[in-house]
Each structure stands twice: as structure tokens, then as C-alpha cells.
Write a structure and sequence with these properties.
Conserved hypothetical protein from pyrococcus furiosus pfu- 392566-001, ParB domain, alpha/beta, elongated, about 300 residues, 5-stranded mixed β-sheet, about 45% helix
């Protein structure tokens, strides 16, 4: 199995202090940002071996869409797991899933060795949810960490958009639009996580339906230092939609060819078109019936001349 790739953010994991046995990477990340999560009663954040987790035998959901799992697994290979699973410790080093079986299954498909996990010691989901909401209100997360935290609170803890918005002092549209950032292509997400693209840039990119167009415009933003307003104008004007080959403009008729076509049409008493390409030309003569064609051929006989 391959080693786990680092994610772009830790979602709810960024809101819970790391356990003492975890690596120093998370702690240094918090120190660099100038904050440390407030203690959450009955929960710690850990990176745990995937094989140390067993599914919950009381899991009411027994069907998982294989195509959706495969799609999530591909995403995990690109950006890592943004949303930690929630587990409880059965024995030292052995855990049982509480929430996140879909993510756990997709991580196995992706070949990850370890996954981020919230190790919960309390059975009260509401207490953990409220503690996470409180920390989410206090901490400075990058836009993708914020989006992942919102989505996980909605999915795993039964929170609503209105509840999140009310508890965080944000608008409902802010919560919804932030969650939509998780739909950006992996390459664009990496730029957002690195701080190269702002949340405003990312939200403007979401107005484009085409992933390739989003990636192209993200590259332009970085290369040209475009403002959010400039990106919104580019999107509104449709300058970064799916690239289509421009239709060829019809060539303007050459006056001399037009005159010759008119003379032929008068002589043959039918419609005539004369075209000239780069290396050769073509004359198109229309006729209505076989008798009309014989008449035209006779008019074009060698002893006839065009005046």
C-alpha cells in the first residue's frame, strides 16, 4: 500500500488538539498560524492506521454506490482526506467507526495507509458537534479547511445550513458557497489551500461549469495577478468558457470573379457561381431539367463565344 498523501486541509481535524502520540506536523501547522484549538471534551485528533479501524456493526447503511466510492477514491489520491473519520477506541490501537464509513471505504480503495480521525470518548454527538462549532467560530482556517468542516458538520452531525450560519455569525449563502469550493478541480484546490488564490477568486471560478476552464483561469489569475473583480468580469463575459473553434468567415467575393459569373449567367440563362481557391478554381452552373442541361451544354459548345 502507498503512503498517505498530505491533504490540503484537515477540516474538523483542524479544530481539535492533536493527541500526544500524533506527529509534530499538525502542531507546527497550528503554531505557524498563531493559534491552537481549544480543548474539546472527550475528543482528540490522531492519524491512525487504516487497518486498525473496523466498521460499526450497527451501521444502518449497508449499500454504498461503487461508482461514487471510486470517484471519491480518485479524489483522495489527488488531495488526501479533508474530512476525518470519527472513531472510538476499543483497545489500545484498535478503533471502531462511529461516522465516515464511506470515507473509510474510499481510503482503502485509494491505497492509503493512514487516515485522519477524531477519536471520540463520549457518546454524546450533540456535545461534540457543539464543541466543534465553537472552535470553528474561533479558529482561522483556510477556505478548504472551512469548507470541509462545514460539510462534515452537515453530513456527520446533522447540522443544518441555518444552524451553522447562525452559530458562526455568517450568512446562509456564505456557508453554501464555501462548501461549493470542494467541487473545484484538485489543481485549483491546491492553489486555494496554498493561499495563492483567495476564497473570492475560488467562488468566482465556480461560475464556470467547465473544469478545464476553471483551471485555465486559475493559472491566469496567478500569472497576471488578477483581482477578484477582474475574474468576475472575465467570467461574466464568457472569455474562459470551453474553447470552441471559431467558425470560418466566408471569403469576400473577388470583383473580377463576380463579373465573370454574371456574364456567364447572362449567356447561359441560369445561375453561375465562380470560386477561386489558393491553387485552383471552380465554376458551378445550375440546371433544372435534363433538357435545360442540354441547352446549357449547347450554349457552351466551342463555336459559341462569350461576349
Amino acid at each position: 500500500m502507498t503512503a498517505r498523501r498530505g491533504g490540503l486541509g484537515r477540516g474538523l481535524g483542524a479544530l481539535i488538539p492533536a493527541a500526544a502520540e500524533s506527529t509534530d506536523a499538525y502542531q507546527s501547522m497550528s503554531a505557524d498560524r498563531g493559534y491552537a484549538p481549544a480543548p474539546v471534551a472527550g475528543a482528540v485528533f490522531r492519524e491512525i492506521p487504516l487497518d486498525s479501524v473496523t466498521p460499526n456493526p450497527r451501521q444502518p447503511r449497508n449499500h454504498f454506490d461503487e461508482d461514487a466510492l471510486a470517484e471519491l477514491a480518485e479524489s483522495l489520491k489527488e488531495v488526501g482526506l479533508l474530512q476525518p473519520i470519527v472513531v472510538r477506541e476499543l483497545l489500545p490501537g484498535r478503533y471502531e467507526l462511529v461516522m465516515g464509513e464511506r470515507r473509510w471505504r474510499a481510503s482503502r480503495l485509494a491505497g492509503l495507509d493512514q487516515v485522519p480521525a477524531i477519536v471520540r470518548e463520549t457518546a454524546d454527538d450533540a456535545m461534540l458537534r457543539d464543541a466543534l462549532l465553537e472552535n470553528l467560530h474561533r479558529q482561522q482556517l483556510n477556505p478548504l479547511e472551512e469548507a470541509a468542516a462545514y460539510e462534515q458538520l452537515l453530513r456527520d452531525f446533522g447540522a443544518t445550513h441555518e444552524e451553522l450560519a447562525g452559530r458562526l455569525g455568517r450568512s446562509r449563502s456564505h456557508v453554501t458557497n464555501t462548501i461549493r469550493l470542494l467541487g473545484l478541480p484538485p489543481a485549483v484546490q491546491r492553489r486555494v489551500a496554498a493561499g495563492v488564490l483567495s476564497a473570492g477568486h475560488a467562488r468566482a471560478l465556480l461560475s464556470l461549469d467547465d473544469a478545464d476552464a476553471q483551471d485555465r483561469l486559475a493559472t491566469r489569475i496567478v500569472a497576471e495577478g488578477l483581482s477578484v473583480r477582474a475574474v468576475e468580469e472575465i467570467v461574466a463575459l464568457g472569455e474562459e468558457g470551453p474553447r470552441k473553434r471559431a467558425p470560418r468567415k466566408p471569403r469576400s467575393p473577388v470583383p473580377a470573379l463576380t463579373q465573370i459569373a454574371d456574364r456567364l449567367a447572362d449567356r447561359l440563362e441560369t445561375r453561375v457561381k465562380v470560386d477561386m481557391g489558393r491553387n485552383k478554381g471552380r465554376i458551378t452552373v445550375e440546371f433544372a431539367t435534363l433538357e435545360d442541361l442540354e441547352r446549357i451544354v449547347e450554349a457552351m459548345s466551342p463555336d459559341s463565344t462569350i461576349s
